[in-house]
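Subgroup meeting minutes
Present: P.N., E.W., G.H.
Scribe: E.W.

1. P.N. recapped why we're keeping a running log of single-chain structure predictions: easier to compare across weeks, and new members can see raw inputs and outputs side by side.
2. G.H. added today's entry (499 aa).
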Amino acid sequence: MSSVPSVVKSVLDRRRAGVLLHPTSLPDGAGNGDLGGARRFVDFLAGAGFSVWQMLPLGPTHDDGSPYHSLSVHATNPLLIDLAALAQEGWFEPERCQASPADAAVYRRTCLRAAHAGFLRRAGAAEREALEGYADANAPWLDDYALYEALRAEHTHAPWWEWPMALRDREPATIHAARQRLAEPIAQVCFEQFLFDRQWRVFKAQANAHGILLFGDMPIFVAHDSAEVWAHREYFQLDARGQPRVVAGVPPDYFSETGQRWGNPLYDWERMRADGFRWWVARLATELTRFDLVRVDHFRGFEACWEIPAEDDTAIDGRWRAVPGEALFDALLARLGRLPLVAEDLGHITPAVHALRARYHLPGMAVLQFAFDGGADNPYLPHNLARDSVVYTGTHDNDTTLAWFRALTAETQARVIEYLGHPPEPMPRPLLRAALASVARLAVMPMQDLLGLGAGHRMNTPGTTDGNWRWRFDWSQLAPGLTESLRRLVEMYGREVKS
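Output recorded in log:
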């Protein structure tokens, strides 16, 4: 096996502590948090000694709100735009945005349309050139995404495979006519992506200036109803009608007798290899313009994926299909020069998957809520962790640590308490200490755990579709002295990063 130089050294070159919080969970903003509250949160992170802010994917979502089921792998969610900043620039007046108070998303979109109208009336030459420059630079993905969104709205949000055949199959004359007919909504989508990009660049510069690195998240698979699948059907295993021949999932295991059928279309890896994995290079390049470090969801799918016949209702009759992961990562490294990635390698991982991760020196993940099943050889127990890893108390898919602990049997609770040395502090503080004290270079804790929140505050419950992705905290939940208390912990365990 050839040697590959470490490519995350500049990020995980020292012990660090981070917080997991998606921007939608910030307190400020109508309906969901946005980049306006992000600046205040950076001040909190810096004050508490944290140097990493981990987020979920930033893409525009379907109605279920899942950031892992996005309408585009390149575009960002316009609902995260800081409307107050736009109003301060004089592009619109918030009180003129008429919408039902119960529908914050409608309100936000109304304000964004008003801001675009104000921009067209008042923007100077430099601002107009900046918008045009952004549109030109991002045309390889933005042109298709903006048209896709405009067509989706025109067809009352029906998926692209239900559009008229000429649009579904991107017949050139029909596509050209659609671009002409929908010029106004297409321009609106481009404007919103420009706004987010401009605000994000300012925010990222401020975060980095405060010593905060931004940690993103890249799902391995793509939503079937997305701009990329519609515009690049050649890269996916689809039939003539645009329907998947096979779909993604995981096989039956201890947790499910029928496995999990996710339903994402699977890649045509040989077609991707034929052009040097150009689609993946562009996708990761986009992520690296926004983040200092990126988590790759379901990393084991780069070694082999569970291929399920599309007509099957369960994952039982799927099979493992080899994936050219080494060729892919060689191409990414050659084209991008660095791979500041973290591999989500949770669950049952084979030696081949470990070898692929190790070849590219990618840190893996460990979740302490998974550490207390089994015996002393559980790989997630703190004494078994590796330095080259990222340890979590829990993730967005876990319940809060306090709720997790309270739901354990009395026997398991006693085992946890004994392992942690019979701490005098109540949960979740002992598990926070265990993460911070571990040898893992990066320790990340969900904001819910820092606030000591219990049941009813989780972000997502896997396998369900209702009530997820909506959790938000309130600034009043930051108890007096919490920032200073957290900073002492970060400093005590050698994770403060001094400038």
